[in-house]
Amino acid sequence: MFFSFWPHKEEFSRTPPDITSDFFAGLTVAIVALPLAIGFGITSGLSAASGLTTAIIAGLLAALFGGSKYQVSGPTGAMTVILIPVVNKYGASAIPALGLMAGMIVILMAVFKLGGFINRVPWTVVEGFTVGIAVIISLQQIPLALGIAKGKGEKSFNVAWNTIKDAINLGVNSKSLLLVAITILIKFSWPLIGRRFKFKHHIPASFMALLLVTLIVKIFSIEVITIGNIPRSVGIYQRPIFENITSLLVPALWIALLAAVESLLSARVADGMAHEKKHFEPNRELFGQGLATIGASIFGGMPATGAIARSSVNVRSRAKSRLASIFHSLILLGIALIAAPLVSQIPTAVIAGLLLGTSYRILNPASIVESLRTTKSEAITMVVTAFSTVAIDLIWGLVIGITLHLVLGQVFKNKLWKCS
């Protein structure tokens, strides 16, 4: 059975033009993934190195063994929501065991062929879930944007509110907020500048914002908090410690469900963007993501999922095969080994600005307006799913959304039947 999940040589580009296309797609994705991996590593309560390690190891394993040729995996904002309370309560030492347990659950889902079932999550619920994630990512960036420690609380909105109150009491860090504003301005204006001057080569807006703002900080000697030391090492084995195995079982289950759902949704979106006739294999994708989470978690990273933003960039960059995702991991590995001292000088306010911009992209206001203009049942489902995701948690948001979708669908069906 496991051999059906193994990669096949025909799934990788073999002609020079296709390999070249995959290389440049991987390079583009790596540039986009670098600040995101660092940002989500810091936000999760671990470290920038942990986020970078996850992008490298999980990205490579999922590319080799996953079921989608466009999927790019790594740390995501959704995963940080589950990891933050675990890290706060049990510390970073719990991550290897947590990731091993979660990864095994995802692999079992693949073995029992649950991928097709999970892949049928209603699109309205997906929209609401995505909106909720975008809001949570935004709230998580407030401590970095304000340049202070996180406020007390478990839920993202409580932490954000308490952080703002602490900032007011301590005095607002105007330098940090200014850097956030400049980062967002460059991120959203750079594509317009590129089109206006018709640049020959595409440079991702996130990378350009990161580079320019970091240079501004260095040139003008602005005193702000930076990422700090990033070890020039990747893949150091961390022995899983199962002291809190019963306490970690529920978070591991939530992580497994999130990894499965988010990865399958991401692969579905990537296929749609690429107009693929041959769709991804859901169960094989679960197998690859399970291996990715195990590998990343026990070698200095954290649980991972397929990343919609990075997978979308991969498609838009004209990736031809899963070789593009492999190149993305290898390029990030080169950055970690060679350019770690330079990366450590990036201000955390820049990371906050980039992730705020990313959350806005994920939010997609035009798509929300369009969804709200559809049927009442779909609009209600989307709003309730989004609210539940932020107010309770991601998994309960999905459960409530799916249940509401089924209930409202039946109610409106009965109304139509009576009217006829």
TrEMBL record:
Single GO biological process annotation from the record: transmembrane transport
GO CC aspect terms: membrane
Transmembrane segments: 23-42, 49-70, 90-112, 124-149, 176-193, 205-225, 245-265, 286-309, 329-358, 379-408
Keyword Hydrolase belongs to the record: no
Membrane topology annotation: Multi-pass membrane protein
Keywords assigned by UniProt, alphabetized: Membrane, Transmembrane, Transmembrane helix
Domain SLC26A/SulP transporter positions: 20-385
Compartments, record wording: Membrane
InterPro entries named in the record: SLC26A/SulP_dom (IPR011547), SLC26A/SulP_fam (IPR001902)
Record-linked PANTHER family: SULFATE TRANSPORTER
UniProt protein name: Unannotated protein
